[in-house]
Amino acid sequence: MENKKYHPVFNILLLSLIILGLFIGQNIFIPFVLALLVWYLINSIRKLIARIKIKGKRLPRSIQNWIAVSIFGGVCWLIGVMLKANLNNLEKVLPEYSAKFSKYVKVVGEKLNVTSLSDMSQELDLSSYASGFLSSSLDFISALMVVIFY
Questions:
Q1: By the 8 A CB rule, do 126 and 90 touch?
Q2: Which stretches of 8-150 are DSSP H helices?
Q3: 15, 65, 102, 129: which could join 121 in a potential S-S bond, CB 3.0 to 4.6 Å?
Q4: Is the pTM here over 0.85, yes or no?
Q5: CB neighbours (10 Å) of residue 45?
């Protein structure tokens, strides 16, 4: 067989179109992918439950599904509780870590005789970066919850 090579510009255009399509369609693709993931996890749990036999008989499929969804929901709830507690703790200690980090950057800048590091430490605001990260994490979790409930 003969391998046909395409011009590099064609490859770049194709990659650009794929990235553009993913960027434009992210509101459709992300919930779809999350829904597939949730379906796969619930289906795997249901298959494990299907192995359970009571008096030589398996549980009805509707009960298997109900138990699998309940287990999945319980695990998601536990993860959410742990995540909320950890994020609240992070929010409480973040200003302290930000101050320590700025102090260390200033000390390193002074020892290396680089003024830009100490100037950068004054301008660096880790709290805003952390709040942006937390915001995007919560957006992801809300998209996941929309998929789970629908």
A1: no
A2: 8-24, 26-50, 61-111, 115-123, 126-149
A3: 102
A4: no
A5: 19
Report how far residue 1's alpha carbon sits from residue 8's, in angstroms, rounded to the nearest whole number: 21
Q: How confident is the model at residue 1 (pLDDT cuts 50, 70, 90)?
A: low
Cα separation, 140 vs 31, in Å, equals: 10
Closest among 70, 24, 12, 26 to 46, alpha carbons compared: 70
Tens-digit pLDDT profile for residues 3-50 = 677 777 888 888 888 888 878 887 888 788 888 888 999 999 999 999
How many CB atoms are located within 10 Å of the residue 46 CB?
A: 19
